[in-house]
Amino acid sequence: MSTSGTPQFRYTQTPSKVLHLRNLPWECTEEELIELCQPFGKIVNTKCNVGANRNQAFVEFADLNQAISMVSYYASSSEPAQVRGKTVYIQYSNRHEIVNNKSPGDVPGNVLLVTIEGVEAGDVSIDVIHLVSDLAVCLWI
Cα dist. 16→56, 65, 78 in Å? Predict the structure, then answer.
């Protein structure tokens, strides 16, 4: 409650096109999330089964107004959002987009993994690694 005696709802926070959904059934699927949210707009990304109990998710809409529409609808509805008969709590996320952590092989980067065999670890200095990597770059160019 605020000092004025009125409840403080999360939907009064800064809107985001990413919504945070809590109290989901632990076995909730991405398809069920999309089914719940799709009537309000185009879903561009989801992140399911997050949180300590794996009962939370994030849904990203294509447009901010679509997310606002969903939050507003359930904030004023007498029927709460539900998945498998369980009430789902919806709030704006403090993120503006969902970032999925992909495996290192899927994400381009500037890290090169080098394995040196046949030598003792103490025989390879940072100078040797630098020299070898410079030669490798010259060969690739």
Answer: 17, 9, 23
> For residue 33, which of 84, 80, 99, 69 has the smallest C-alpha distance?
84
Distances in whole angstroms, Cα of residue 40 to Cα of each of 22, 62, 73? 18, 10, 9
Cβ distance 62 to 37 under 8 Å?
no
Task: Tell me the two tokens of residue 66.
Answer: 């679509």
d(CA 101, CA 75) in angstroms, rounded, equals 31
Which pLDDT tens digit goes with each residue over 53-86? 889 999 999 999 999 999 999 999 999 999 999 9
Q: How far, in Å, are 59, 98, 100 from residue 103 at the CA level?
A: 21, 16, 10
**If pLDDT is split at 50, 70 and 90, which confidence band does 89 have?**
very high
Q: Give me the domains of the chain, ranges plus CATH numbers.
A: 10-92 (3.30.70.330), 104-140 (no CATH)
pLDDT tens column, 8-37: 444 467 999 999 999 999 889 999 999 999
Structure confidence by residue, pLDDT tens digits, 103-117: 555 556 666 666 777
Contacts of 141 (CB under 8 A, 6+ apart): none
